[in-house]
Amino acid sequence: ATMHIKKYLLKCLHRLQKGPGYTYKELLVWYCDNTNTHGPKRIICEGPKKKAMWFVLTLLFASLVCWQWGVFIRTYLSWEVSVSL
User: Fold this and answer.
1) In angstroms, rounded to a whole number, what is the distance separating the alpha carbons of residues 61 and 67?
2) First and final CA of the chain: distance in angstroms?
3) Alpha-carbon distance 78 to 65, whole Å?
4) Which end of the chain is less enclosed by CB atoms within 10 A, N or C?
5) Among 40, 9, 45, which residue's Cα sits nearest to residue 27?
6) What is the Cα 25 distance to its own chain's centre?
7) Membrane spanning segments where (predicted)?
8) 3-class SS at 57?
């Protein structure tokens, strides 16, 4: 038990020396463990074939959302405005 505590404290000390940030992999795993969305959670939890399928589906639907935002913003900005003083 003391060996585990010593390793944990050494890891904490190393992280303090490294700075306040975590690695991108640690942040991704934390996000995937704590999110309500289906895709990212399954990307890290499933087997290799399902991981690939969920990654492609998540990427596809995220890109569709971005494309829809682009269409929405372009439509909003294309409205003509007339101002008379």
Assistant:
1) 10
2) 79
3) 20
4) C
5) 40
6) 10
7) 52-77
8) helix
